[in-house]
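Late entry, written up from scratch paper. The run itself happened at the end of the previous shift, but nothing got recorded in the book at the time, so transcribing now.
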Amino acid sequence: MIRKKQEQTGPVIIDLTGPDGNAYALMAYANRFAKQLGYTPQQRGDLTTEMMGSDYENLLEVFDKNFGDFVILER
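Output as recorded:
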């Protein structure tokens, strides 16, 4: 089926079970969102460091803490 592109309204949804759920993909999203929100390069570096500071669950918690107001992570 081919349909016209629909305008996205509401939060961004990231499916953690697909390729976007990869830790590196999530860090790329985080960097992009942080840049859009006006984080300084130092703040973006600190965010990346905090995300990589422990395991995958920590990465998700840090991501959600920073971007959970407009991004939904689905398992």
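Helices lie at 23-36, 41-51, 56-67.
(Scratch paper discarded after transcription.)
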